[in-house]
């Protein structure tokens, strides 16, 4: 029984310790930790308005996170969420500018498709480099992030800049206000809750369906489990790697579309860094996916938790003047705790086994569905 | 074209060498860690933390050397944490490195905003030291022998690290546990202790690299490194896990960066295209990774946690 408990206990313990460290950070910057956490929670979930904002903040994390689970299940690490969000958003902006007068029923699916394609391309490139040139995908996806940022800066300062910015001479690097027909409609009156929130949840469910209910998903998981065995079974391993990263990237790209067309300004804006546009969703999505046990459906509540953390941190900054960067630091700590908990879990399991005296049934260190082992198997 | 005038070229080379310093320091440290079989993707975060604490120290005490020491110590502490996570707990190295990166990015930002707020330049920064006689050689002296102390140190570390890895017992042990930890273990080499030491040394280098950034630039701002630490990790692959290879890569990056800057200033490349030119380091890295992959062998146990069972 302890073994079963360990599954839920370890991540919870990790989260608790992470929050204890969060309290220490609050103390370090001279804020009362109890007041801090109260502001964090009320800021995230305290009113219908705040809840809506949390859902909106969780949306890109969920899409990136669901994409990450697909890549990880195929044993591919995708650190390229930032770049994929940006490239998806850029292609969606171009699509919206090409057909500004198309009705919403046409334009919204079109921009979503453009986001999927843009992010998919940005994911497929490192996928192909890994499959056909054995380039480490962790490094190539990071480099693709750096390239995407510069591409965004170039396009938003040059070809895609709002003509009014040139006329006025202010030259803020942003697009014009894009067609209202592409705007994601608000689905909860009086709040910022828009259609993108539903699209993301649907996409996460789709990711689960693809992974566990289709032959494609079976192939991806087989490749993730053992490339050699998959090859022997006639599964095209190289193509599966490209597919995994392309799918993963496309979900991030869709997040890019939603960031632009779910925003009040209906523009894409850059401050020169990627975080200025993405809010670091490409990294925070990894955190959400890991915390959700690399399962697309568990990534849904997990993203809402981290979306809440981000919204709460914004509130914290307003109320207690504690910079929202606290959330980024906390996310880092949580990542470390979640990926470190694998061996701790084995220890607890071992104690559990000793107690219940089923010494004959020592659990294998690496059962296939344990995400901690999946991520350990990287090379 | 003005860029190709001798004096401009010399100045560009000098600035390229200077810009290569943090890449080289961080890359050498990462080389030592990876040779022991541990990938540290958190370099960028460690650099930001040490840069912040070095900056804050100098801001408060106006003592560059104290700042440098603090930068080193921050690297050491982060090394201890990272070794505990990856060696003792056996966590996945790629992802835990991203955790360290996020923590460094967020925590340095948090501290900066609460303690300083708006960027204030340091009153004193690392100045150039002319190497006697050599600095007086026309052109060559200006390009190579009028640099700050950490630049000299970084280049001096290249043969030192090569010697360390190949001629000392610890160096040999590091390479042994990076290639075949089981065999090393059966010979009585402690894999855990060796990897701890390699990570500690490597992160101290990263700490020094972070200190070099602020002590030379004289300013800290959130996300100071802008991915520099990640490029340093790529440089290790690029340099085929050899200190001299890493040095070649670091110089290349420094020169590319300096040339892009110079061409922007001279308005050879139009302002609008300068963002495109800034893609160069990342594109070169990808091309280099394609060329390197399959030709050079990484340490066989790289990223594989060790356990006796």
Structure description:
The complex is a heterodimer of chains A (379) and B (309). Chain A has a single domain (2-376), classed as ABC transporter involved in vitamin B12 uptake, BtuC (Orthogonal Bundle). In chain A, 73% of the residues lie in helices and 0% in strands. Chain A has 16 helices and no strands. In chain A, α9 packs across α11 and α13 (281-291) crosses α14 (299-320). With 309 residues, chain B is an all-alpha fold. Chain B has one domain (6-118, 148-292): ABC transporter involved in vitamin B12 uptake, BtuC. Helices cover 70% and strands 1% of the residues of chain B. In chain B, α1 packs antiparallel against α9, α7 packs across α9 (191-217) and α10 packs parallel to α13 (280-292). Classes of the chains: A mainly alpha (379), B mainly alpha (309). At the A-B interface, α6, α13, α15 and α16 of A face α4, α10 and α13 of B.
Taken together, the total number of domains of chain B comes to: 1
Order of strands, main sheet of chain B, comes to: 1-2
* CATH fold naming of chain A: ABC transporter involved in vitamin B12 uptake, BtuC
Biggest beta sheet attributes of chain A: none
Q: Strand percentage of chain B, roughly?
A: under 5%
Shape of chain A: globular
* Total number of strands of chain A: 0
Query: How much helicity do the residues of chain B have?
Result: 55-70%
Biggest interface found: A-B, 57 and 54 residues
CATH fold-level assignment of chain B: ABC transporter involved in vitamin B12 uptake, BtuC
CATH architecture identity of chain A: Orthogonal Bundle
Largest sheet of chain B: 2 strands, antiparallel
Q: Cα distance, first to last residue of chain B?
A: 65 Å
Our Rg estimate of chain B from Cα atoms comes to 20 Å
Report helical residue fraction of chain A: over 70%
Strand element count of chain B: 2
Topology pattern of chain B, helix = H, strand = E: HHHHEHEHHHHHHHH
| Top CATH class of chain B | Mainly Alpha
> What is the beta-strand fraction of chain A?
under 5%
Kindly report how far apart the N and C termini of chain A lie: 34 Å
At the first level of CATH, the class of chain A is Mainly Alpha
